[in-house]
Each structure stands twice: as structure tokens, then as C-alpha cells.
Amino acid sequence: MDDKRIVEMLFLRDEKALEEAQKQYGRLCHYVANNILNSPLDAQECVNDTLLRAWNSIPPNKPQKLGAYLVKIARNVAIDKYNQSKAIKRRGSENALVFEELEELITKDESIVDELTLKECINTFLRSLSKARRIIFVQRYFYHSSIKEIAKNNSLSESNVKVILSRLRDSFKNHLKKFGMEV
Amino acid sequence: MKRKDLDKMLNLIDDELLEEAKPSKKPKATKKPKSYFIQLAVCVACFLLVLNVSILTPILIARNFENNGNSTEQGTIINNSFSNIIFNSQGGQKTEVVLSSPISLIPDKYNSLKSLLKNKFPGLNEDAVEDNIKEEIDSSDKDESLEDATEKYEETTDLQVGGVVEGDLLKRSSKYLYYLDGQTLRIYSIKGNNSKLVSLYNMSKIYSLISDSTKIRGEKESTDDELYEEVLDKEEYDKRDIKEMFLAKDLKTVTIVSQGYFEFDDGRNHYIRELPYVSLISLNIEDVNDIYVNNISILYGRYESARVVDGEIIVFTKYTPKRESAIVPQYSDGLGFKLFDHDKIYYNEETRTNKYLLAYRMNESTLIMNDVGAYLDYGDIIYVSKDNIYLTHEYYQRGENEHKTVTEILRIDYSNGKFEKKGVLKVDGYLKDRFSLDEYDGVLRVVTTDNTRDVKTLDDFGTSANLYCALVDTMEIKASVIRFAPSGEIVRSVRFKDYNAYVCTSIQITDPVFFFDLGNLDNIYYKDTGTIPGFSNTLVDFGKDLLGIGVDSDWNLKIEVYRETDTGVERVCHYLVNGTCSDEYKAYFIDRKNGLIGLGIYDYNSQWPNRYVLLKYTGDGFMAVIDKEMNGDMDLMRATLVDGWFYIISDSDFVVREIPYSIAKRY
After folding, report:
1. What ipTM does this complex have?
2. Given this structure, which CATH class describes domain A3-91?
3. B524-563 pLDDT, tens per residue?
4. Is 1.10.10.10 the CATH classification of the domain at A99-178?
5. Closest CA to B530 of B495, B483, B576, B562
6. For B26, which of A68, A117, A153 is closest by C-beta distance?
């Protein structure tokens, strides 16, 4: 069943839409949540929360790409859970490593950045990269994939991926400056 | 930026980009086994390295330490003119700065490097090389045709400015190819099908001595942990970042540039100091079988780029002091580190950060320092013309009515033996890369992406592109074309040639390519292709036409040719691969005379995805002359054409192919 049909069913408040969404995108949502939480059980809970939030938000929202819409919700739910639970933090996860890498971009800068600027900033950066580099960046910092997995998926060595990511973070840092974000 | 903004930003990635990167299992590239000889050579090199490091290095260090260990002169500089440097970033308040005396940053055994120069450091000792390696490293090769020929320098890098040489992994003479493979310099004879590896020079031993010489021992001089980063994975850290090399035109030396960090060891833990340095190693290569270290220089900062002009090497690094006492950068004059003189530091009332761009100019072979310059705030992009260096600084300007990125471009004249600061030009928008700048016939041309936004409504004006032409002498804008691209587009790639400018802009995955005629600045006119699928990340002037390397609407690799017509710009032909290629411009082989373009690609449809392709542009289409599997990282692949033979080199492969005369004429 395609995304359009599932969204239509959600508009009609047909619960079968959730089953279908779970079937098609549950695994991907579980994958991201598990990378963040390092617990299959907690990740499954996130998937359930994701579907509930999707049920509550469609309508009024009408996503064009349901997979991306759901995975963004799953990522948010998992990060909220991660931030709230010290036990999860102690457990260690790929998320901790990802945030450690992004630490250099985080400051106490209090300036308010509007959503439009944030969106323009990240997407112009990603679109300025080659496809291969862009995939590596998104897999690491959105999907929270491990270095090992990225290396395997992209037929690179782990050290090669680390070097690429380090250069990408440097370019990203420069790009943030262009949009007035202190790093 | 705050963490929640960063989280939010990552959640605003366009859906299609998320789908594109969805983790999935792709077939892993099958790699050809490496050449038996190369594997063996690496094993032997490692064995010799272990032998040398474990046996020879302690002896040398001990000897050097006896001679020089306590010879570093100490100096104290306080209350000098630097004390009043004002940093606007600190609220514009004058701060009395107590400077670090130079000694505090000089490692205890720095001077042992000088003694190191008295010793020859052969890379591979031929006597110790096993017979089968000798077959490959054929040092007794006596080819009469090579012996008789006069050896001369040949440029392999497609330079942005003629005569301003850029560093690269591959350089060559008429006899030899020099390829920098990590810490090893590989030298091949140029003899078509009979080309061989004639020499290997491994620099691990030298780097380990440099690391040791730049190590600071004892207790940390500051308890500020931000200055240190504990090295947990020493093995990983030891993979030094080798950047590029230069071959001197007299063919006597090769200069290798790499990045390192001052280290700190308190006997219990090992730290990297938050202080990067660049090392330059000049190797004497007059006899490829007897290569040795000529000179070494250590420069402050993180490597940005370098050029060689008329026998002088100009190196650019970035330096960000983490504390006020280290505010003044230092340089080595061969005897130890010195503080930059006050008149060598450029800053102005608008200086906003404590980030320096440091420029050093040295004799290419002796590495003797001729001049230095430090430029606060500058160095986002560096462009070097024959007489001038242009450094850019971008900042976000929040005005009453609009917010926008502004770029300042500082001109430094280096034609008279010294760095001389000249004017500053301010333009709206930000630059894509060094190809967005060009100096020609007394005019500096600049292309930017303009991101001006209305502050009251926060309406997005939509990005667009600007072109500016400024007089070099005065740095005043003489002509401009503002917001010439459709709203929402950003600059993807720029190329200038003579009085022409070519610009590719795009919004997502469709683009126009613009052709500008800048012959008459009072009447600039331009044409474009209209909207076409995909966009070009790189534009190359290619004879009468323009070559674009980028992607099509499905994000496949696209190599396309554009041609100016009476009415506009047309697409002549394209070559598509379901795959990707390197972003590194220096990894492209470009032969305008023969209409050839070569590059490493990753072909998703191929059983051997890592490939090298050489294409011939026939005037109305492309013909694949070579399409061959290749081991190695495509960013590190380089190629050159010599007398009808095409040489492709990567970090783990070396391939030679004959090219028919009909494809490539001999020049």
C-alpha cells in the first residue's frame, strides 16, 4: 500500500492505516529509536508512541512522505526519552557518541534562531555535498547509525568514515557561521 | 548554537534527503586483491620501520638530547605593544594581556630536529630489501632513453591560476611520477608499459621523531582541561594527516605538508594539546635511490592550503588561541619560536573573533622563513593570484531591516617579497569556494549566494546569486549583477576564464547555467540554459565549451557539456553513471587540448563499483576511452597522460594504459 493511501485512511480514521504504517515503517522507526536508546524494548515503546502521535497529528497534517514523517517523530520521541532517563544515559548508546561528535557545534549562545533559518541552513548544507558524503552525514547524525554500519553500507573503512565525518563537521561548522549561528 | 536548536535543525532535513540516506544493506564493493608486491613492500617497510624506531630512534634522540636538550633559549616578553589588542568579541574592552613567553610553547626537544637534519634518513634501505621487492624497485634500471633525456618539471595539477602551483598527491618530471601515499612517497619511472616502482620513501620514522621533538613532558602548565584532549586511542591518533606535496621545478626537492598536534605526556596520561601544527619536510630527491631529509619546518596552526610561486612556498594555517596569554601567534625562524611582530598582525575595529589566518612564505628548498602575516577573522576562503592573496571573512549581519551574510575580502599584495595589506571589499552573500573569486586584467570578480531576509516579516526573500566586479587597485566595486538567479537558488559552482564567467545555480535538483561576458564592465550581459535537470558541483572551462560535473535529477553522477549559442546556452551532451564521484577537484584529470576528462567513480550497478573512467569529448558526445576497476579511495586517485600513455595511481593501485593517437595527440 502506498503512502498516499495510508494517509487517506488516516484521514478516514481507519485504524488499519496504523497496521499498514507499522508494517512499512515500523522497522525503520525501531532502528532509529534503538540506536538512540540502546534497548529494543524501549525502542518498541517509541514505535508505539510514534504511531499514536501520527494518529493524532494526521489530520490536520498531510505528509507527502510518510516514512520520513514517522521516522522524525520516532527520533523525537526517542531523544525525549533519552534526555529524561538517567538510566538510559548510563547504558550508553550510539546517541551518546553522536552527541559527543556534535559537541563542538554546541555553545551557550542564546540568540534565537527561527525555524526557517534552521531549515534553510541544514538543507543548503546537505545539498552542497556530494550524494555519498550527504548520505554519510544523514546516516550518522539523523539515523544515529554506528560508524561500523555506515562503513559497511558505503563500502568504506571505518577510519575512512571517521575522517569523512570529521571533515563534514568542519564544513558544517563553517556553514553555520554563514547563517549567523555561533559555534 | 544550542543543543535543542541542533536537534530541531536535524529534524528539518528535507524528506527526500532522509529517504535517500535510509540505512539499507547495499552490496559491499568487492575489492581486487592488492598487488602482491605492494603488500610485500608494505610488510617490509613496516618491519624496517619497527627496526629503525625501536633501535635507531632512541640512540638518535639520546644523542641529540645530549647535544641540544638544554640549549633552547628562554625569553620573556611582557608589556609590549600586543598587550592592548582589543577584541570586540570580548565586548570591546581593552584587556591587559600577559603574553605567554615563546618558551612555554617550545617543546623541550625541538632543537633535536636541527640535529636530525645532519643525518640522512633513507626510507627503504636497499640492502635490506628482499629480492622480490628488488624486482619491483628496480634501482639498477638503466634505460638509455631515460638516461639521455633531459629531465624537466611537468605540471600534473589543473591549476586555478597559471604559474601559481598548488600542492597535490601526484607530481611529475619527464622521467618520474611522484605519488604521496600517506606517509610513503612512491616514485615510478615513466616508461609506458614498462613503468616500474623505482623508489619508496617511508616517512614514519621522521614523523615519529617530529612527534617526539614536539612533545611536551612534565606536569600540565595549566589546569584548564579545555586546552587538552586525552588521547585514548593512540593508534588511531598516530595516523598522521598527510596533506599534499610540491615538487620543485629544479627537481631537487619534494616538500611534504602534513598536520600534527603538539602533544603532552605527564608520564601517566597522554594528551593532545589543543594546538595544531603543520610540518613541512623537504626531501632531497636528486637521486631517487638516495632520498634524504633536506629540511624540516614546524608552523603554528591547522593547515588550510599552500602555493608555490617563483621558488617560494606560501603556507596558510588557521590558529585560534584558547586563552589570552597565547593571543599572539609564533613562528619558527630555524632557531626556535618567536612571536609575530606587531606590524605583521592585521586586525581592525570590526575584528570579531580571535581566529587567525597565518601566512608564511619560505624558500621552497631551504624552508628559510622570508615573511609572515597574521590576519584576524580572515581565511574562510583563500585565493591566490600571481601578485595578490585574497582572504575572505563571512559574517551574519543583523540590520534594522534585513539580515544577511556579508563577505569581506582582504587583498594582500605579495609581489614585492613581503606581505602588504591593501584594501578590503565588502559584498553581500557568501562564496562557494576559491573558484568563486578571480582576478583578471586588474579586476577582481566575485560570485556570491545572496541570502538577504526581511527582518520585520521574517519573510524569506529567497536566496539568489550576485556577481561583483571590483578594481584590484582600489577594491571598489565597478560593476555588479544583483540577484540574477531565480529566487530560492544557491550558487553551486563558478568558473572564470579570461573575460567570461560561468555560474551554475540551483534550487534542489534543477539548475540553470549562466554564461557572463565581462569584457565591458559598463555593459555586462549574460545568457543561461534555462531550467535543466540536476546541477553541477564543478565547472571546468573545456576548450570552447564548458564542462559540468554534478548530478542529474535522480542524483546520479552527471558529466555534461554546455555551449554558448547566439540565443542562449545549450546542453551539448552528457554522460550518466548510477553512482558518485570524488568532490576533490584535484582528483579530476583534465586535458583540454585532447578533450579528455578522467575521474574515479563509484558505480552502484557494477560488480566492481570502484572504477576509473577516462572520457573523450568528441564535440557532440562522450566516448569512454577507459572504464576500469580500480582499488583505492577515489579522492586519492590521480592520473596523468605522458606521450600516449595514461597513468592512473591510487593509494593501492597503479595502472598504465596506452591511448591511441586518434584519442590523444602528443604535445
Report:
1. 0.89
2. mainly alpha
3. 999 988 777 888 889 999 988 999 998 887 778 999 999 9
4. yes
5. B562
6. A153
